[in-house]
Amino acid sequence: MTDTDQGAAPTTAPSSAPAGDARPAEASSPRSMPEPAEPDPRMPRLANSPGFRDWMLQGWGDADRTPTVPAGAAEAGARHRERLSGAFPGRLIAVAAGRAPMRVNDNAHEFRADSDFLWLVGAAVEDAVLVLEPTGGGHDATLYLPAPFRPGDEGFFADPLRGELWVGPMPGLAEYAEALGLRTRRIEELDLPGDALLGGTVPTAGPAAALATRPRSGELAQVLAELRMIKDAWELAELRAAVDTTVDGFAATALEIPRAVSLGGERWLQGTFDRHARTFAAGVGYASIVGSGAHAPILHWVRAEGEVDPEALLLLDLGAERRSGYTADVTRTLPASGRFSTVQREVHDLVEASHRAGLAAVGPGRDWADFHTACMEVLARGLADWGLLPVSVDEALSPEGQQHRRFIVCGVGHHLGIDVHDCSSASHAAYQGAKMQPGMALTVEPGLYFHAFDETLPPELRGIGVRLEDDLVVTEQGADVISAALPIEAAGIEAWMAGLR
Ligand code: GLY
Ligand code: MN
Ligand code: MN
Questions:
Q1: How much is the pLDDT for 475?
Q2: Domains in the chain: ranges and CATH
């Protein structure tokens, strides 16, 4: 990491006085430090001599500034804008892309654009705002974005956020206009009327920050979520590609189990998948869950700071995200040794039966809630057979009961798309209360989570967690399980693991 501080500059503070520390100097200090003029922690202290400046403004050649836009994404964005336009005739709409949040001091996280913005534009353009202006028959689209600093601008060498000498070649207005088929304007020209519908992620800093005080439209967020529920062929191809990369990533991760057992633990496996996703897609769609043994029942075990126990189950919940934003969300629970023990297999078999019941309940015209009901019924019956419920199955399955949920406090599926939990701003009527339609994508993910410290359980079940999670697309005829390349039955998982070596 390059320090933004050029130490030779005359205004540089000695290391004993941290930059940006605005406390007055101690009276007894032998060298009282001047107050920093404008302590913006992100701005470097540059050499500011006229000689340096004049020399830096000249002599730079050209660079390739073609934006990274996934094939077909610009066209998909145009189709999606048409659909949004139809939902809001006569209304002015603005959707902001957001900006990378700062991680620490002057270091930002990687930028991930707002999902609605990605759906409407097709590319991640930091600090940009898409505006749809009503016309007679629909809307005209304009992308407002900050102009990068280029050779000949002082910011080219002085601005660590947008200067090309710092961050590499940056596409600008002309390049984005060409690649996205959109009119572009400088963000400084954006002047939104008060009745505009504002959506997306509005940053609190940077050139779009003036919008941060304006209310975001809940109606716009809801309509976008509901439009995004039905994926077109291009979106489904992106989703399938994300799943394919994830399936490969499961193999790459499982191959590293021996190394994780001997050195590295859960963290090694998490890093293995993350590297795979970052190399063959854009990254991960959510923090990878890697839980060995007693960590497997912990639903959001993203810390991955444990050992990998060679005798225990290993729960892997992994998803690669494409540049388009579409992400997979797949879980398998593997025996680290390659062979399930008897009790591990029994738990896995029950989850598999629940999973198969859930898969069978997905299809066009089915109630969204059907697969939830199907999964839960199988789990409750199995738990009752094992004597783990304090009431009868019927009582547990009644709305007043639900005792079986002690072992699965989470849901068993959700819409999947640009967000791992896609379309979450949709109304209850359009989501949980709706019928399934062709073009919907979702997960089915029943599990059983027997915590190590659950004193209601027999000792042999404590510390066992199993989840089976597949990604599905609802079709005209039924449903495609697009993650079906990974087996779901215990014997198939053992054979798959053996085949990797
Ligand atoms: N990985 C998050 C989920 O399964 O919903
Ligand atoms: Mn999921
Ligand atoms: Mn998951």
A1: 98
A2: 51-56+64-227 (3.40.350), 233-500 (3.90.230.10)
